[in-house]
Design a protein that fits this description.
Blueprint: H1 18-30, E1 40-43, E2 46-49, H2 51-64, H3 69-72, H4 81-86, H5 88-99, H6 101-107, E3 110-115, H7 121-134, E4 139-143, H8 144-154, H9 158-170, E5 173-177, H10 188-204, E6 209-213, H11 221-224, H12 226-235, E7 236-241, H13 247-259, E8 264-265, E9 270-271, H14 273-278
Helix pairs in contact: 1-2, 8-9, 9-10, 10-12
Length: about 280
């Protein structure tokens, strides 16, 4: 495992909010039945760190990487089997890429994940990113629209501008989601700010970039411009997914809600077994 000091963001635009940190502490540590919220416990007269602290740190790592909450606890096992078989060849490529992330970081080799809505591009990108985080690399997930908004902020905020450069240039594995959305028609100042950062990342530092797009790589120049499109052509291999990865997730939700419940429905309302005992309706 590679041990690196995480990139430290200073601006509220990129760092984990204090409210989210409090939520994570409450979930993993404050309500811990082993250490009672102290984060340590006495084990045969030796003070040791409680496991809840490891769980908090793991959750904080995902939050620090800005991985969407909906994807944080999902794994490749949550992908629908029919979808997996339909995209078997490309899943194999993703697996090989995650197994060789050291080499990807050395060469700057990245991925262009393409497909229609619901084809699992963003989800698969987070799986790759979480694997890099577990190996000790730095990583970050950001929507293209949020990257553009941060660029607008950076025009008048030095702290955001400094963090933006850290994000684009220093992060080991950067995922830009929906890169085909929002970049076109931006003003010249945004173009002038982002283009040099992308050039530093791709050409000078040769760090891998993982992007998702509904538009094929061959047509992306119409959205992001010829200069960035040329960087993609040189450094990013295209992987196209088809179908819908979500049915299995929906099946689990339906099972949790409808197959394990005990509510009894009437014509105009529903009552639970507890309501029957108390006469409530």
């Amino acid at each position: 495992m590679v041990k690196k000091i995480p990139i430290r963001f200073e601006s509220d635009t990129f760092k984990v909010s204090s409210d989210e940190i409090l939520v994570l502490k409450k979930r993993y540590c404050d309500n811990c039945t082993i250490c009672k919220g102290t984060r340590i416990f006495d084990d045969a007269n030796n003070l040791v760190k409680c496991e809840c602290l490891n769980q908090f740190n793991a959750a904080y790592t995902l939050a620090h990487a800005n991985i969407p909450v909906a994807f944080r606890e999902l794994t490749s096992q949550d992908i629908d089997e029919c979808f997996r078989q339909e995209n078997r060849e490309y899943f194999h490529r993703v697996q090989l890429y995650t197994q060789q992330q050291d080499k990807a970081l050395e060469t700057g080799f990245g991925l262009f994940l393409q497909g229609t809505n619901g084809s699992g591009k963003s989800f698969i990108a987070t799986i790759i990113l979480k694997h890099a985080l577990r190996k000790g690399y730095s990583g970050y997930f950001i929507l293209m629209s949020d990257l553009i908004n941060a660029s607008f902020e950076a025009l008048s905020n030095a702290e955001v501008r400094k963090d933006l450069e850290k994000l684009v240039v220093q992060t080991d594995f950067l995922v830009i989601d929906k890169i085909d959305k929002g970049f076109r028609d931006q003003n010249d100042n945004i173009q002038k700010m982002l283009l040099p950062l992308f050039k530093k990342r791709c050409d000078y530092f040769k760090k891998p970039l993982i992007v998702t797009s509904n538009v094929a790589k061959g047509s992306i120049a119409q959205t992001v411009g010829k200069t960035i499109a040329a960087m993609f052509t040189e450094r990013l291999t295209e992987i196209t997914f088809t179908g819908n990865y979500r049915p299995q997730i929906l099946d689990k939700l339906e099972e949790d809600f409808f197959q394990t419940g005990t509510a009894t429905f009437t014509s105009n309302s529903y009552i639970t077994p507890e309501d029957k005992k108390t006469g409530n309706d």
